[in-house]
């Protein structure tokens, strides 16, 4: 893989990572509620899941999942259920991105819980596995050792993803300052809840 190929890969994944998806929405909502600093644990969970999925794809483990419709469906339905669960909780105001009243106690989540939530979001998305399986090999030099090239691609992907996590995290913290009225808070919670449910519905149609 030459430098030109790497730049093409970087440009592609940089734009791709910036596109709103379940991970980015999760980071945004965590940051709106608890601030960018505390949402770092959620970012770490999402990023860990991303690296594991990309490494699994590079190792050929994705072929096992794709070749087993039952196993693929287990992961897919698990991801759908979790996204819909998050959507319903946000819509109903339970663990929503924003507390609706100053008199309501603020739910406290430990860094481990925030990490776990981000990890589940990332690891239960089989669309990423399908994408990585089809996308990463296009940038490999078949005549050169594969492992170092995959390592460079995965680290590049993780770096681009981390940059956008920071952007969404800081954006969520800034957005929270404007969502001071109960009506705006309720609208934001319901919009984010609806988007989470929409992501779950979209994932339901994923096929290997």
Largest sheet: none
- What is the overall number of helices? 9
What percent of residues are in strands?
under 5%
What characteristic shape results from the CA principal axes?
Answer: globular
Low-confidence stretches: 98-106
Let me know the average pLDDT: 79
Calculate the terminal CA-CA distance, rounded to whole Å.
28 Å
Helix content: over 70%
Instruction: Report the strand count.
Output: 0
* Number of structural units classed as domains: 1
Structural class: mainly alpha
Radius of gyration: 18 Å
- What pattern of helices and strands is seen along the backbone? HHHHHHHHH
Give the arrangement of secondary structure elements.
Elements: H1 3-18, H2 22-34, H3 40-58, H4 61-67, H5 69-92, H6 111-123, H7 126-135, H8 146-176, H9 182-204
Write up this protein.
The chain contains nine helices and no strands. The chain has one domain. About 4% of the residues have low confidence. It starts with a helix and ends with a helix. By secondary structure, it is mainly α. Helices cover 75% and strands 0% of the residues.
Write a concise keyword list for the protein shown above.
208 residues; mainly alpha
Structure in a nutshell:
75% of the residues lie in helices and 0% in strands. The protein has nine helices and no strands. The protein has helices spanning 3-18, 22-34, 40-58, 61-67, 69-92, 111-123, 126-135, 146-176, 182-204.
